[in-house]
Amino acid sequence: MLTLLKHTQLFAPEKLGVKDILIANKKIVAIEENLDEFRNKHVKVIDANRKIVTPGLIDQHIHVIGAGGKDGFASMTPEVNLSELIAYGTTTVCSLLGTDGTARNIRTLYAKVKALNQEGISAYMFSGYYGMDTVTLTDSIQGDMLFIDKVLGVKIAISDIRSSYPSATDLVRKLRDIMVGGMIGGKKGILHLHLGNLPSKMDVLFELVNDFHFPIKHISPTHVGRTKELFDQAIEFAKLGGMIDITTAASQYTPPYKAVLYALEQGVEMSKMTFSTDGRAGLTKFDEDGTAIGVRAAPIDKNLQETILLVKEGHVPIEEAFKLVTTNPAANLGLKHKGSIRVGNDADFCFFDEDLNLTDVFANGKHMMKNKNIIVKGTFEL
After folding, report:
1. Contact of 96 with 155, CB cutoff 8 Å
2. CA–CA distance from 276 to each of 88, 152, 170, 311, 341 (Å)?
């Protein structure tokens, strides 16, 4: 099946002007000012009417099988449905376990990742959870990196009372397995680190870089906007060449888009920051007096909302703001075929009107949302 998108106001994410895009099956095969030569009865033509078109959004830290559980089994959050992701322009996810690596099983996570791929989007995962005893699908981290196509790295927690308090030596040994397994398996490979609010902050990561001289591109800290002190340290990490991940739905001392503006003022390059939601994490629910009254699931819509706020309130150009949810997470995860609209890349797109309201979504060349209506839903949503 060939699909021709006419008259897109293209941000790839860099601003390219009005372009036509030709899709063959799941891939982008041509981008030109005019591709009418391909018009025939076998080609589906969609007029974008000069809508703003960006790459599909990437959420590199989301709990697609749910997480939570800090207040018992009833506080474990539910799974994510396909339509919830499409509703906010998310066409690629990388998922992971949370605090719990027992009730939430790594094999169940893999099954959900495969299901989302069958339903139409692109889904990947990290092995591991908060603890040092990395849970894997094979018998080792290196085995997962080599033989499980959807595994892009490993998660672990630091500076958190729920972590195993790993040392730099502990982490560098895991990094070695991730890097070597990635080399052989054709992946970049990253150690994705949950950051808690203990005073140790990111100290062990600087030890990895400065004392062990480990390549910083394989070290991926998240929740860096939890406190002002932590974020200031994350800024220094980014200036060393590291990628820092700002959580949009939780763990924030200031609105995420404002954290980005502050980092830019401090000299951090936009290419060194990402947004992710931490969607479906378990959060405490408070009443108007600040008293804990229960739990709620972290929303999955905040990447899109914070990116738009960065444009509208922060006056950051579209082509720069959308890097946080397109090219940057693709680079961090090592997904060369994602995050930008290029010939040969996967055909993932978001269409926006002039006020940046999301109207259409394509995932792997398939029209999933049309004129603000979700037209492709998950298997059990029908």
Report:
1. yes
2. 13, 16, 26, 17, 20
Please report the sign of the dihedral spanned by the C-alpha atoms of residue 224, residue 259, residue 316, residue 367.
Answer: positive
Domain CATH number, residue 265:
3.20.20.140
Domains held by the chain: number: 2
- In the numeric block, the tokens 């390549």 are attached to 215
Bridge-based pairing state of the strands 43-47 and 122-128: unpaired
Taking the C-alpha atoms of residue 123 and residue 138, their distance in angstroms, rounded to an integer, is: 19
What DSSP element (H or E) covers 180? helix 168-185
Q: CA–CA distance from 209 to each of 18, 216, 234 (Å)?
A: 44, 6, 13
Residue 179's pLDDT is 97
Residues 99 and 226 in one domain: yes
Q: Are residues 179 and 213 in the same domain?
A: yes
Structural domain range at position 39: 2-54+340-374
Helix (H, G, I), strand (E, B) or coil at 239: helix
- Burial of 362-381, coded b for 16+ CB within 10 Å and e otherwise, reads bbbbbebbeeeebebbbeee
Under a CB-based contact definition with an 8 Å cutoff, are residues 141 and 177 in contact?
A: yes
Share of the chain above pLDDT 90, in %: 94
pLDDT of residue 287: 84
Q: Catalytic site residues?
A: 278
Q: What is the pLDDT of residue 294?
A: 84
**Confidence (pTM):** 0.97
Mean pLDDT of 223-246: 98
User: Cα(149)–Cα(125) distance, rounded to whole angstroms?
Assistant: 10
